[in-house]
Amino acid sequence: MKNIDYQLRQFVEIARHKSLSDAAIALNVTQSALSKQLREIELAVGHRVFHRHGRGIKLTSQGAMLWHAVQAAFQFVDATIHQLNTPRATTAGTVTVATLHGCTQLVANGLFASILGRRPDINLTMMEGTAKDVCRFVEAGIADVGFVDRRSTIPHTLEISVAHASIVGRPCRQLVAVIRRAACEL
């Protein structure tokens, strides 16, 4: 087969329309050209893929197997192409997260599980310190966001509380907003 993608997409259209003439109209090709492509597909797979009858065509069992595989593959390919062509949100970049000593792994695992695994365009840098250090890192811009326990003394200008921890961060940072949303899922 010369262009397998093109021929298999034609095969899918034929199966969808259940008619060579209707599929030819939808594909803007002649019925004889489409019939020739269908013969090439059948030669390539080694089986007839359609039963032809007076009222149209019907998939054979081999044709149905091919149709299911091709549909799944094309859905994946089409979705990937759409994703590649869709402009990304402006949350790409590096986020520096400060945590209490010994909490880095827990916070990093939670962030990866909730968003970073789905957003490869975000790089994560972790740092540790005392609660006072974490607040100082965020205030000085060394860290974008910090995680401390509820008992910590946090400047009221930095605190964003969640159910089981306090998150500290400077306002108006898109990357920090992504991390804050993820932290609420932790």
Protein architecture, described:
This protein has 186 residues and is α/β, with parallel strands linked by helices. The chain folds into two domains: 4-85, Winged helix-like DNA-binding domain superfamily/Winged helix DNA-binding domain (Arc Repressor Mutant, subunit A, Orthogonal Bundle); 93-185, D-Maltodextrin-Binding Protein, domain 2 (3-Layer(aba) Sandwich). It is 52% helix and 19% strand. The protein is built from seven helices and seven strands; from the N terminus they run αααββαβαβαβββα. It has helices spanning 4-17, 20-27, 31-45, 61-85, 104-116, 131-139, 174-185; strands at residues 50-53, 56-59, 93-100, 122-129, 145-148, 159-161, 166-169. Strands 4-3-5-7-6 form a five-stranded mixed sheet, with helices on both faces. Strand 6 (159-161) and strand 7 (166-169) form a beta hairpin. Helix 1 (4-17) packs across helix 3 (31-45), helix 1 (4-17) crosses helix 4 and helix 5 crosses helix 7. GO terms for molecular function: DNA-binding transcription factor activity.
Compact summary:
The chain is an alpha/beta fold and 186 residues long. It is built from seven helices and seven strands. It has helices at residues 4-17, 20-27, 31-45, 61-85, 104-116, 131-139, 174-185, and strands at 50-53, 56-59, 93-100, 122-129, 145-148, 159-161, 166-169.
CATH topology tier name of the largest domain: D-Maltodextrin-Binding Protein, domain 2
How much of the sequence is in beta strands?
15-25%
- Average pLDDT rating: 75
Strand order of the largest sheet: 4-3-5-7-6
Order of secondary-structure elements: HHHEEHEHEHEEEH
Backbone structural class: alpha/beta
What's the alpha carbon Rg, rounded to whole Å? 28 Å
β-strand number: 7
N- to C-terminal separation? 51 Å
Q: Give me the oligomer status.
A: single chain
How many H/I helices?
Answer: 7
Shape: rod-shaped
Main sheet attributes: strand count, strand direction, barrel closure:
5 strands, mixed
Low confidence ranges: 161-165, 171-176
